[in-house]
Amino acid sequence: EPEVTQTPSHQVTQMGQEVILRCVPISNHLYFYWYRQILGQKVEFLVSFYNNEISEKSEIFDDQFSVERPDGSNFTLKIRSTKLEDSAMYFCASRVTGGKQYFGPGTRLTVT
Amino acid sequence: GQNIDQPTEMTATEGAIVQINCTYQTSGFNGLFWYQQHAGEAPTFLSYNVLDGLEEKGRFSSFLSRSKGYSYLLLKELQMKDSASYLCAVREGNYQLIWGAGTKLIIKP
Fold it and tell me: Given this model, what pLDDT does residue B29 score?
């Protein structure tokens, strides 16, 4: 079965640095998502992307965050100036139409 | 406001049946999802209900009552590998999923 892939699996960065988390959604999927999950807490929606633009975003997704689909296969999440509280697991997901979202394995971001 | 409630933790015995409940209050409704999440891993899709009633898929079934804002996930013939967190999530509009905090299911031999 096709899979969503994410790189890196673990990223350690210093506070104030920029990070880019990368995702390759399943090739024929049309809707793309980023979620985060702070350790021990619930999954939180960050942003959805459809037809080359952001379709929805949460309050968490402020000016420090941006997404891109630069080349038709990759889907990236950039955090411009990381904060300690950005430490979390970041999941990318994609779907065709209908319900099921396929999740990538996640990137563990640690901000020190 | 948005609210999704599910029990924090449940314990069951291998081979038994367990029902995990989820109640929701959201401003819109466009489907309810159940995901399984093992510690340190990504959520994996279990079921999707958009109409009232029961959806059965092997050992797992999911029920939805939209008028009551209620769903449950039923797991039969429990196996040790079913020990995980079970996440209830509601799609309000076209895109965003609102997530419950998850129910940690502990299976004992």
Answer: 93
Name residue, tokens 């104030």: A16
Are B95 and A91 within 8 A, CB to CB?
no
CB contact, 8 Å: A87 with chain B? no
Of A43, A50, A55, the CB nearest to B43: A43
Cα gap B3→B21, rounded to integer Å: 14
Of all residues in chain A, the one with the smallest CA distance to B38 is A105
Residue A88 and residue A110: Cα distance in Å, rounded? Answer: 7
pLDDT of residue B1: 64
Q: What is the mean pLDDT of chain B?
A: 95
Of A33, A43, A106, the CB nearest to B87: A43
**How is chain A split among helix, strand and coil, in percent rounded to 5?**
5, 50, 45
Residue A98 has pLDDT above 80, yes or no: no
Cα separation, A105 vs B44, in Å, equals: 10
**Residue A81 CB neighbour total at 10 angstroms:** 12
- Note if the bond before A8 is cis, omega within 30 degrees: yes
